[in-house]
Amino acid sequence: MKNGPLNNIRVLEFSLIVAGPFLGMNLADLGADVIKVEPLEGEARRQTGTIPGTSKIFQWVNRGKRTLQINLKHPLAKQFIHEMIKSIDVVVINYRPGVPKRLGIDYPTLASINPQLIYANISGFGSEGPLANDSGADMTAQAYSGAMAADGKIDQYDAPEMIAGISLGDTAAGLGAAMGVCAALFHREKTGEGQYLESSLVGGAMALEGGTTMREAETDKSSRSIILERYKEIRDKGGNYKDLIGARKSLTPLRRGMNYWCGYNAKDGALVISANTVGGRIQVRESLGITGMGDDDLNIDIHDPNFLTRVEEEHLQIANIIRTKTVSEWMQIFRKKGAPVAPVLLPEEVSEDEQGKFYFQELMHSVTGAEKQVKPIVSFSVTPSNISSSADMPGDHVEEILREYGLSSEQIQVMKDETVINE
Fold it and tell me: In angstroms, how far is CA 195 from the centroid of its own chain?
């Protein structure tokens, strides 16, 4: 296989959990040589699986990398890292604010050693504002960005429930920073100039939901101001989060096609209709055998008090029809008409689905055996992206990396004796 577009780019990653590792994973998928630095005992996410030393979440975001378990607080480790930086192209880091400087791996320190260095930092809240020095996690990002409330889920205690199944802030920040690294490398190619770049979990989550949080004067007059006034009334009366979410949902503007932008139960599962055009809704109705125009009929006034009643009646009609067949049977019918409908797959089913299986690459892990991982997020015709390997186990590459970056057998033994690295 040909090399990826980032072939020969060397990345040193100081990371933990998801955001930083996800950034490094994407660079590795594009062909970069990524070395992940971990503490002596290995990153904490190695210890959350059924097998000591690895876990599914660790294997996901650390595929295609070599790892270096080293005590960064030891002077010999700092000396080695500083020597290593001379031939590194990109540093990835998502430690808490203040930690990089204490360890001697902050941007000013490393850039003084290698001025052409690209330094990508991911934080919880970014470097501006009163919360810049606060730590953050994905749940923090979901909450502070507005994404959690926009999703509108409430737990059994009437309290906020996080968006499950996706690390929204982590992955958005990591993907945005990966884009930034590629742009910075392109700039360096033209000018020879390195630079610092950053993304944040909160900023990443906000970027993905910008259409919800953005401000626009004319539209805000008829929507945002009304909602804010309702929030104030609820809070003044001692209302809780559930009340606020209920008000938000009740004040969502009515629109045509609501029954064609939602999910339905079939005999053996569920499917969603995503028809946001008149043409698509006609295809759905033809597939279902429904006559008439539904609420696409412009003679129907969406502001009429009876509009919601008509919507509910149509929804019940569609639901009853879909409940009569299996998901597979309906998909055959909808596909013949070209209707925009998809089955709702459960996470455990995705890799074996007729379409889903095309998004996976088979790998072999040295301890856990055969695995399937989702392919790189982008593909190329000339410089293919690829998962080069499964995530390694602690110690697999430590001596290899130390030798590659200039240490002799005697120097490596000293690092072992000083517990800078493990035996």
Answer: 24
Say how far residue 412 (Cα) sits from the centre of its chain: 38
Task: Look up tokens 């945005």; give the residue.
Answer: 176
* Closest by Cα among 56, 43, 25 to 368: 56
Q: Is the C-alpha dihedral spanning 274, 280, 286, 292 positive or negative?
A: positive
pLDDT for 360-401, tens place per residue?
A: 999 999 999 999 999 999 999 999 999 999 999 999 999 999
| Contact criterion met (CB below 8 Å) for 177 and 199 | yes
Give whole-number Cα distances, 32 to 73, 294, 362, in Å.
27, 53, 20
Handedness of CA 270, 275, 278, 279 (dihedral sign): negative
Decide whether 10-208+393-417 matches 258-346 in CATH topology: no
Q: Is the pTM of this model over 0.85?
A: yes
The residue among 90, 7, 74 whose CA lies nearest residue 39 is: 74
Q: State the Cα–Cα distance between residues 96 and 8, nearest whole angstrom.
A: 29
399-406, Cβ contacts within 8 angstroms, sequence gap of 24 or more: 400/66, 401/35, 401/66, 401/68, 402/68, 402/80, 405/80, 405/83, 405/84, 405/87, 406/83
- In angstroms, the CA 82 to CA 88 distance is 10
Domain 10-208+393-417 in CATH 3.40.190.10: no
For the chain, domain boundaries: 10-208+393-417, 217-250, 258-346
Q: 421 is written with which tokens?
A: 């690295």
Q: In this structure, what token pair is assigned to residue 18?
A: 């998801």
Q: What would the two tokens of residue 37 be?
A: 């630095």
Judged by DSSP in three states, 176 sits in: helix
Residue in 8, 58, 12, 14 with CA at minimum distance from that of residue 31: 8
Q: What is the pLDDT of residues 148-177, one digit of tens each?
A: 999 999 999 999 999 988 999 999 999 999
CATH code, 258-346? 3.30.1540.10
Q: Among positive and negative, which fits the CA dihedral 28, 30, 33, 37?
A: negative
Separation between Cα atoms, residue 325 and residue 266, nearest integer Å = 6
